[in-house]
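Notes from hallway chat w/ T.B., transcribed later so I don't forget. T.B. wanted the structure written out for a chain they're using in a teaching module, and asked if we could keep both sequence and structure tokens in one place. Agreed to drop them here.
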Amino acid sequence: MAPNTLKEDVMIVNEETSEKLVVGAAPRKYKVVWFIVAYATYVHIAAVYGLYLAVTSAMWPTIALTFINNILSILGLTAGVHRLWTHKSYKAKLPLQIFLMLCHTASNTFTSISWIRDHILHHKYTDTDADPHNSTRGFFFSHIGWAMVKKQPEARAKGKSIDLSELYANPVLRFQQKNAVWLTLLVAYIIPSLVPLIWNETFTVAYHMNLLRVTVVFNTFLLINSVAHMWGTRPYDETILPAQNKTVSFFTLGEGFHNYHHVFPHDYRTAELGDNFLNLTTKFIDFCAWMGQAYDRRYVPDDVIAARMKRTGETNEKNT
């Protein structure tokens, strides 16, 4: 099955579970969640105004704070909910866990537990209707449309089968889940909008610059669901949609080596070249290991990688 060439639904069988799954491009009925549509519309418009203010009015400390908060929010996604808690590719001590939980909260991308559940579904049922952001439904759906509609019945059904007991047993994740509303308001919106007032920034500038950050973080990470499932190379497995995309890796601090990641999801580097300058999340985890906060980093031996590339990878790899 060539990537993104489906014209109608195809029934496939999951080799691990023998489950029948639907993958394809036939029309689906979507139940729009208008509150999320309204919110997404508002923050994107506000972000454009925030960009205008960044160019015309914002003070340099405000711009610097926005940039730093942007990086920290992405680390909460990449090093936190993704590599640490979803794939268990390394372990973290309590201070690092709290830090990453707060960083993820600042990203305003759902609670950590719900994010992890959906990402487990994404890997278990990639690009089928049990995948919350099935890329065979088109670019808009896989990028942001999936967040504006209720989940497909297949995704809801499979989501109920995911065992979340270990996540709820984690006191850091349980605390965030229990206090999600006020914690998100405080960490993602109130504090970043008030801190610039210390150096006499106007609230209008501070508020809209923060909404610019929230919008950039959200769209940046969504590139992995959309762009990295449509364009790029597939040197590790040419039969799947996830692809290597260096542009996505640049913006997501190393998450665009997506063909590798779907073949070897438990490698903490998410890439064969763990020391690649585009993979800043790996460098962050290595730094945390040096500080004694991260440990038991998992990676795939070179001979295993080479064997898989020879067996299932593209024969003519091109640079993205």
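Follow-up for T.B.: Confidence is low (pLDDT under 50) at residues 1-7, 9-13. Might be a good example for the class.
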